[in-house]
Amino acid sequence: MQYSQFAQKFKKQTGIGQLMEDLGSPPPGACMLGGGNPALIPEVAEVWKEIVSKQIESASLNRILGSYESPAGIQELREYVASILSEESGTRIDENQIAITNGSQNAFYLLLNFFSGKFENERSKKILFPILPEYIGYTDQTLEADSFLSFQPKIQEIDSFYYKYYIDKENFDAVSDWKEQAGCICVSRPTNPTGNVITDAELEFLISKAKEADIPLLVDNAYGYPFPGVVFEKSSFLHKPGMIQGFSLSKLGLPGVRTGFVLGDPETIELIHKANSVINLTSASPGQYIALELFRSGKWKYLCKNVILPYYKRKSEFAREAILQNWSSNLDYRIHQSEGAFFLWIWVKNLKLTVSELYPILKEEGVIIVPGKTFFPGADPSWSHREECFRLSFVREEKEIEEGIIRIGRVLERFSK
């Protein structure tokens, strides 16, 4: 059977699709430190139970499950989202600036392809990642090949055990034709996989560069403000003209309902509505109605600030302490400064094998991580840093986290130079 070039992309996938397949068939007893699923926090789960129970008792399930909503989504929900984002950013935002999608993954598939690929007069444009590493889920999303332009970060070692990535502003001067090449700038905040939160000053810098090139700045807030707000360091949520931002219910604890939101200019939002009507007919209703009740009640703010954020901050602290206590002092490693999201990002120097080569060995030892190589879309393949890093999830039970970290440490010590 012959397949189109579009279908061939899925045969060759190396990003999120391959990761999800690997996570779906782990060896028995494995410590699953590779996934991105949010934790089942009892206090949060109780809120979902209350909302769904109320919907069942009120007989509103007939509408939720038995009717198509508009491709634009439930208007009242869009109004609530606009109101929340207006209050949090201090900027007036209207419901015609809000789109509802089947999760932020779905939203960024549309956005990345809106602003990359072939343009008028057969010009090709790319997605500019101003700092690497970046989210694995972007890797296979573009319809056309060679769609990424990526800049290496500045690396600042903080002390004997920590470091942080910063945007290297000089890259914008070194790549003289980036304005001609780029159709958009894209960044996640906090970043999956590193837990890096670009500073407010860095965000303002990117806004200025996008304006200078007359292209949009896409900001993925799947882990960030205002919900779920898993940001450990002080920073701000803002919205300015030229920005297009994505949000999701997944990291609030609702990954199964596949509901996301996009904030942008009305023209882009209208494009998303039209694309949604073709690809999905409409966005799924259950998540929209859960979100409507959550936002209407105001409970989202309490959950984010007083339950979800402290929970993940404690998890991050536990995982970092487990590494510091259990890994040999002979290992030359650094942990990226944990500023948000659900992961630790580990950089290990002076290994005999690459992290990709260590992955099957770690799997045999009963621990699943994610090699760093897949988080560097468009990077120079000769950059050795790509193969010295890996992502480790701390969204598991503490016993499993500690055992997995101990197993990783043993393997790394075996293959340390």
TrEMBL record:
Q: Which Gene3D superfamilies match?
A: Type I PLP-dependent aspartate aminotransferase-like (Major domain)
Domain Aminotransferase class I/classII large intervals: 49-407
Kindly list the residue ranges recorded as spanning the membrane: none
Q: Name one GO molecular function term.
A: pyridoxal phosphate binding
Keywords carried by this UniProt record: Aminotransferase, Pyridoxal phosphate, Pyruvate, Transferase
Q: Give an example GO biological process.
A: alpha-amino acid metabolic process
Cellular component per GO, a single term: cytosol
Cofactor requirements of the protein: pyridoxal 5'-phosphate
Q: Name one Pfam family in it.
A: Aminotran_1_2
Domain of life of the organism encoding this protein: Bacteria
What is this protein's name?
Valine--pyruvate transaminase
